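TICKET #2291
ISSUE: user wants both folds in one file
ATTACHMENT 1:
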Amino acid sequence: MLRELNKTNSVFNKFLSEMRDVQSQKDSMRFRRNLERLGEIFAYEISKELHYELKSVQTPLGIADMYLPTAKIVLGAILRAGLPLHQGLLNYFDAAENAFISAYRKYGKDNKFTIQFESISCPTIEGKVLILCDPMMATGASMELAYNALLTRGRPAHTHIAAPIASRDGVEYILRHLPADDVTLWTGAIDEELTIKSYIIPGLGDAGDLAYGSKL
């Protein structure tokens, strides 16, 4: 299943446009904060898909009957660029458990690359709702590898993937390679092109560098 948030006009588009803008990108603190805001909006939208049960809440003056979410949630982030987005999700799902995946592109000849995993820190995800986030989804390969790596920790009841910007190729790759009944893909915008090095056009550049500074 695919959900595209920019199909509905909202303040989400304002935050995303600032992240794309080369002038706004000069302020790394604002870039991180906008990523966090997008995480909060993704969390709100995803919350509509969760299971709810009627609960009684004691107030100072009586009893209020309210529908509350019951799912156990694990938030997964691909380091390092995924950290602000992860924080936004955690702001809303504040009782969630957390998983972190260390991965990077290793380039070889002809601009071809493989995804290298260094470590995974994750609780069991058996029967839980997994929310896996990364600011950019280019080819979709790293997201698929992250998903499969997390399956070594159990089989989630459902997985939500949140990517503010995705390429058309990446979206189609995920829809082909991940189980449609078990995974929902959430994007903020789908861009149509990839460079020869698999960077998204128009995209926004390197999200990790914009958030935390250039790497070696």
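ATTACHMENT 2:
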Amino acid sequence: MSKVIITAAISGAEVTQEMNPAVPYTVEEFVREAKSATEAGASIIHLHAREEDGTPTQGRERFKVLIDAIREACPTVIIQPSTGGATGMTSEERLQPTELNPEMASLDCGTLNFGGDEIFINTENMIIDFASRMKERGIKPELECFDKSHIDMAMRLVKKGYIDGPLHFNIVLGVNGGAAATPRDLLFLRHSLPPEATFTVSAMGRNQLPLNVMAMLLGGHPRTGFEDNLQYSRRVNARSNGELVARLARIAHELGLEVAAPDEAREILQLAPRR
């Protein structure tokens, strides 16, 4: 029986408690949401750090506090910090979570026009710097690709030796400036990956659930959570990240798939031994 790895992106950097009161800001709220997601079947927590007032931060110490608290409550879960940060941050600001030597971290593989004058900058040299830092520290990069050109960039850097296999991609759909959240685009991007790579699919808003299901049918893995989708159904907010994860786990079982436990996810992704 095939196994799927469910990732829960529990906080994001853009969503707020005004949009959904369950979005975590405090340490206690992060622990609550991480625990709800892992108990429902998530093996990976994709983590954006927030200050107590909800302000996004890439601060090393804030990440450490959150990771330590989540690890105490959910000792086996894979914690995957984001190195995306926010527009305008320097590379060194964004790389701070890598100083904590997580098992995985996100690695953005291209620049995006987020809208208006807001540009999410990831030059080739920046991507090389991020990849080199992760390689030095034994951190597996989750190759975040928002378009076909991002996959091409990642593969060029693999050939140049900056990124080692086995490769794991995150196909992100529906973000302004990137590929649309459509079945056509997902099929195109999935078939643009090397056949031996593993992949996760993230899709925004109302497209999250159908494209997560499609990901599982294509042999990939789904990502849900408040970063991607605040609502359980139209105009009805999800009560927790766990509620979104539980739905995916239920659908996976209906499709004849088994939900991977964290240590099984480590085997599938061929993560280095935990430190």
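RESOLUTION: both attachments delivered.
EXTRA DETAIL ON ATTACHMENT 2: The radius of gyration is 17 Å.
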